Amino acid sequence: MARVQLALDVDDLGESVAFYSKLFGVQPAKLRDGYANFVVEDPPLKLVLFQKPGRGGQIDHLGVEVEDSASVEKAEERLRREGLEATVERRVECCYAEQDKVWVRGPDGEPWEIYTVLADVDEPGPCVQDGPARSSAGEVSSDEAVESCCTCCGG
């Protein structure tokens, strides 16, 4: 099942976890230092919180979580057919997970990712503020992924 992802910057992670636990009636699926995510069944939502004091209430990035890498590849093909510049990341570690993903930017520069989680990892992964690295081929190698990822994890 695919679900929309909303990644928010929050001032106080503990306060935000308490609020969103009450709002959606679920506890975080993953809770780490400065990071939490919720898997909400109804409505289908992946809510990700990044503690970034002074930036609370801002959208970090948006996304769609899909079931598998084949779905990421189908999304990449469709986006390219539509003429959108898509950047692919394969087997990157980001947000305490190993992921395959494809990134595009909305008309106002907002980063969108379509991704699947391959495995959980213990470390947050390398992240930068400006979203994925761009290459002329539109794909990010595993070496380049160190310079990319999302805008997450307090980076």
Task: Summarize the helices and strands and which ones pair or pack.
Elements: E1 3-10, H1 13-24, E2 30-32, E3 35-40, E4 45-51, E5 59-65, H2 69-81, E6 87-94, E7 97-105, E8 111-120, E9 139-140
Briefly summarize what is shown.
The chain has 2 helices and 9 strands; from the N terminus they run βαββββαββββ. The chain has helices at residues 13-24, 69-81, and strands at residues 3-10, 30-32, 35-40, 45-51, 59-65, 87-94, 97-105, 111-120, 139-140. Strands 2-3-4-1-5-8-7-6-9 form a 9-stranded mixed β-sheet, with helices on one face.
Could you characterize the architecture of this molecule?
This protein has 155 residues and is α/β, with parallel strands linked by helices. It is 16% helix and 39% strand. It has helices at 13-24, 69-81; strands at 3-10, 30-32, 35-40, 45-51, 59-65, 87-94, 97-105, 111-120, 139-140. It has a 9-stranded mixed sheet with strand order 2-3-4-1-5-8-7-6-9, covered by helices on one side.
- Order of strands across the main sheet: 2-3-4-1-5-8-7-6-9
Radius of gyration: 15 Å
Structural class: alpha/beta
Mean pLDDT: 83
Distance between the termini: 29 Å
H/E series: EHEEEEHEEEE
Most strands sheet: 9 strands, mixed
SS strand fraction: 35-45%
Total DSSP E strands:
9
Query: Helical content, roughly?
Result: 10-25%
Oligomeric category: single chain
Helices, by number, come to: 2
- Which of globular, elongated, flat, extended, rod-shaped describes the shape? globular
* Low-pLDDT stretches: 128-148, 151-155
Summary keywords:
155 residues, 9 strands
